[in-house]
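Suppose a colleague, Dr. K., hands you the sequence of a protein chain of 181 amino acids and asks what its three-dimensional shape might be. Before reaching for any lab equipment, you can write down a predicted structure in token form. Begin with the sequence itself:
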Amino acid sequence: MHLSSKNITSYVGRGYVFDSGIEIDDEIFYSVPSSFFVVDSRIPRELRELLAEAEGCLKSNFLTGASACVRKVVYELALKMDAEGDHYDDRIKSLKAKLPTIDPTYFDTLLTIQEVTSDKVHEDSYDGWESKHLRLILSSLLEILNEIFVVPALREEKRKSILTLKSEVLGSKKQTDDGAA
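The predicted structure, expressed as tokens, is then:
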């Protein structure tokens, strides 16, 4: 998304230009690049909002804020899935056990955020912790959420579609058979 108070009139070789002939980059007052993550609407709203906030923090390289949002997503997911355990690690391990069809490495990746957002936030520095690490964690979390909320819905939609087609095919065959008899 790019916002400007000027009118864009034409496209010239390198990009769009405004009435005044000034290039677009000179006239943008607010710019947000396309999202790295596409979050399906079948994922519960509160989880989508936290993911969006984490991504926003990540875009600005606010690793503490992004890490906190990711942990909050895990806590909320643990509540929704009735995961057991008193601690972050225990809840993730419980989710991993409850969801054996999801690649376990995604859950193992989530366990690494604990190292950063506990002692590191309060006592130590972020030695070696970069935005690429958080992108990995967010990608793993998004894949887990897709496997839980999106894939089953897609399967159900496909199943219903096939059953409808089957009904149409068998229904028309039955009418043909009845008409011939």
